[in-house]
Amino acid sequence: MRFHTRKWVKPEDLNPNGTLFGGRLLEWIDEECALYSIVQLENPKTVTKYMSEIDFKSSAHQGDIIEIGIEVVKFGTASLTLNCEVRNKMTREKIITVDKIVMVGLDEEGKPKAHGKTQIEFVKDRLSN
Ligand SMILES: CC(=O)SCCNC(=O)CCNC(=O)[C@H](O)C(C)(C)COP(=O)(O)OP(=O)(O)OC[C@H]1O[C@@H](n2cnc3c(N)ncnc32)[C@H](O)[C@@H]1OP(=O)(O)O
Asked: What stretches pass through the bilayer (predicted)?
C-alpha cells in the first residue's frame, strides 16, 4: 500500500468529544480516492459508486499527522476498485480501514465509460512516452 497524502488534524476537524470527526475523515478518504482514480483512469468525471463497511479502529487527536494509503484491488471495465487504510504517522496505529471502494469513470452523458486500463500507471512514465 502506498501512503500518498498526509493531513494535519486541526481544531476544525474535531468532534465534540475532542477527537477527529469521522465525517471529516471520510471526506478526506473520498477526495483521496477520487483524485487517485481521476489520475489513473485519466478521466476527470470519475465518481464514487460504492464504499464497503468502514472500521474505525482508533482515533486521532488535535496536532496528530495522519496518512492516507490506497491500494488498487482491481481494474474493471469502467470501474476501479480500491482499498484504503488511514494510520497515525507518529504511532503507526491504524485509524480506519475501508476494504472496498468502487470508483467509476463516466462519459459526457454521465454513463459508465470503459477506461481500457489494466494496471497502475505512474505519471513519470507517461511523461517519458
Ligand atoms: C467523488 C464523489 O464524491 S462523486 C459523488 C458521489 N457519487 C455519485 O454521485 C455517483 C452516482 N451514481 C451514478 O451516477 C451511477 O450509479 C453510476 C453512473 C456511477 C453507475 O451507474 P450503474 O447503472 O450502476 O452502472 P453499471 O451497473 O454499469 O456499473 C458500473 C460499474 O460499477 C460497478 N458497480 C455498480 N454497482 C456497484 C456496487 N453496488 N458495488 C460495487 N460495484 C458496483 C459495476 O460492477 C460496474 O463495474 P465495471 O464497469 O468495472 O464492470
From this structure: none
Its CATH class, for the domain covering 2-121, is alpha beta
102 lines ligand 1 (CB under 6 A): yes
Does residue 51's CB lie within 6 angstroms of at least one atom of ligand 1? no
CA dihedral 67, 21, 24, 120 (to 10 degrees): 30
Can you tell me the ipTM of this complex?
0.96
Atom of ligand 1 nearest to the CA of 80: 50
52-93: pLDDT as tens digits? 999 999 999 999 999 999 999 999 999 999 999 999 998 889
